Amino acid sequence: MDELLVPFFLETVRCGFPSPAADSREESLDFNTLLFKHKANTYCLRCSGDSMKLKGIFSGDILVVDRSIRAKSGDVIVAETGGAFTVKTLLLKEGKAILHPENPDFADIVIAEEEELVLFGVVTAVVRVIR
């Protein structure tokens, strides 16, 4: 991957009433370094649907997924079960895997012992183009 360096101002910007940037310092930000910690094991995909909206993941967002991270309870993951791919929060409770949607309109997917759950990675970032 080629390096993509853009100006990065260290001053934070309030999302409320604007305040003048006092000590605006600038350095470079490399999106490859920020988004791809394990480049050889990372891929991106576009998601659809609104089952993860309370986690800030919306239809059309691009997910950055790292296959080298061992998933733990509470991670947002890309998984396949029952022949379908999905993005959900992984919950591990009492020896069971639960794929939890972050939207109360959707039900948990409880993985039964006889079912296979294949993890395709942990979501590490969300990219959203707003214009």
What oligomeric assembly is this protein in? single chain
**What is the CATH architecture term of the largest domain?**
Ribbon
CATH domain fold name of the largest domain: Umud Fragment, subunit A
Q: Which class of secondary structure composition applies to the elements?
A: mainly beta
Q: Count of DSSP helices?
A: 1
CATH superfamily of the largest domain: Umud Fragment, subunit A
| Integer-rounded radius of gyration | 18 Å
For the report, how would you describe the main beta sheet? 7 strands, antiparallel
Tell me the fraction of residues in β-strands, as a range: 35-45%
- Which strand order spans the largest sheet, edge to edge or round the barrel? 3-4-9-5-6-7-8
Number of strands: 9
Uncertain parts? none
Averaging pLDDT over every residue, what do you get?
Answer: 88
Q: How would you characterize this protein structure?
A:
With 131 residues, the protein is mainly beta. It folds into two domains: 1-35, no CATH class; 38-127, Umud Fragment, subunit A (Ribbon), CATH 2.10.109.10. 4% of the residues lie in helices and 42% in strands. The chain has one helix spanning 31-35; strands spanning 5-9, 26-30, 42-46, 62-66, 76-81, 84-93, 96-100, 109-111, 117-127. The strands form two sheets. A seven-stranded antiparallel sheet has the order 3-4-9-5-6-7-8, with no helix packed on it. A two-stranded antiparallel ribbon has the order 1-2. The two termini are 25 Å apart.
